[in-house]
Design goal:
The protein is α+β, with helices and mostly antiparallel strands and 206 residues long. Helices cover 17% and strands 30% of the residues.
Length: 206
């Protein structure tokens, strides 16, 4: 039992448990953060022969699966793992994990438009849940928005913008819960740190 702050543990050799529950070992479970580029499908195979996210993981031998999805024309943070319990909780609406996007739109939204996005608009499947929306930059009849949602509905951000008269030109997911895209380049990937894994599992009550 750890009783002193700052005590260090090595997840490769130490058995670590929180409140009596053992954390999975890093040798069994794998967690990959990928910057999905535009034009890549969020699947492990594609009947049309398009590039898949699995094709980008040439040095990853473990069979990992995408958590949620980004559509063909969207880019950004994608988590792949074989930790099924974590993946299920990250995508379940019950846990309300925040997903943060940077969105370039055609048009300059006024406060009324922003408020509609914040309070909810009707898209396929019903009214969207409240979202956090702010303008990062606006010029030349275009704007960059930061939009934070806690749902995982298909094409949700694009549909939200379309419903208020904004055409999406670029969409990049930059954050999933406590996990940040950081300075990773499009198409690149890396393994999550033990701290990041712990933060993700803590965020969903594991």
């Amino acid at each position: 039992m750890v009783t002193e702050l700052g005590t260090k543990a090595d997840p490769r050799t130490d058995r670590i448990s929180v409140n009596g529950r053992a954390l999975p070992t890093v040798t069994d479970l794998h967690y990959i953060l990928l910057y999905k580029p535009v034009g890549v499908v969020t699947t492990l195979s594609d009947p049309e022969g398009r590039t898949t996210v699995r094709d980008l993981l040439t040095d990853v031998r473990a069979r990992v699966f995408p958590v949620g999805r980004l559509d063909f024309h969207s880019a950004g943070l994608l988590l792949l793992t074989n930790d099924g319990e974590l993946a299920q909780r990250l995508t379940h609406p019950r846990y309300g994990i925040a997903k943060t996007y940077r969105v370039k739109v055609r048009g300059t939204p006024d406060e009324a438009v922003l408020q509609r996005l914040r309070t909810g608009v009707r898209i396929e499947g019903g009214l969207t849940a409240p979202a956090t929306v702010r303008v990062i930059e606006a010029r030349d009849k275009k704007a960059w928005l930061e939009i934070v949602v806690r749902e995982g509905r298909k094409r949700e951000i694009r549909q939200m913008c379309e419903q208020v008269g904004l055409s999406v030109e670029k969409l990049v997911r930059i954050q999933l819960g406590p996990l940040h895209l950081g300075k990773l380049a499009p198409g690149a990937h890396r393994a999550l740190t033990f701290r990041e894994i712990t933060a993700l599992r803590t965020a969903v009550g594991l």
